[in-house]
Amino acid sequence: MSTLRINEIFYSIQGESSRIGMPTVFVRLTGCPMRCTYCDTAYAFHEGQQQEIEEVIQEIKKFDTNYVTVTGGEPLAQKNCIDLMNQLCELGYQVSLETGGALDIKDVHAKVKIILDVKTPKSNEDKNNFWPNLANIRANDEIKFVIQDYEDFSWSIDIIEKYQLNQSQILFSPVHNVLANKQLAEWILKHQLNVRLQLQLHKILWGEKKGV
Question: Domain of 161: which CATH number?
Fold first, then answer.
């Protein structure tokens, strides 16, 4: 049987992406090859239990929502993550994948909404961005830049221009409690960017803690 190492499965409000505000089941997988300076889920690096995919799906079915987010850690670090997402798509769930951008997304099911995190310089993981991923971004997918300061902001604009990214698919998110939300909003307006400002609604509602 196919198994995954699961850190946690929980039901909450989606705090990010264009599905913000929607009740969603989150499946957090254990493990990540990166160590971002601002990581808010370091507990998922090692903690977790092996579960059969069918067991994971049965837990998801307990909740009355069609939205499922597969996250981490880095979910694509476990090869059976693809199998889980394929089965969820076949069952009719609207699946989103939150990935750190270091691993190849080419095998992800076409029905999965990919939220691709492009690592900025202040993450200290920008050297591990797998740039060919940007060529595999589809119309339904979104690209996230987590921004700590103006250097990150300016760098992100350069990447958008270099790769001719569709600004309507771009999420700019300030590092929580480091860069003021208002400051990032003002920079976006000053540069007349058509990107989406993302404020992590779940942290506004409940603060930084597990299972929300």
Answer: 3.20.20.70
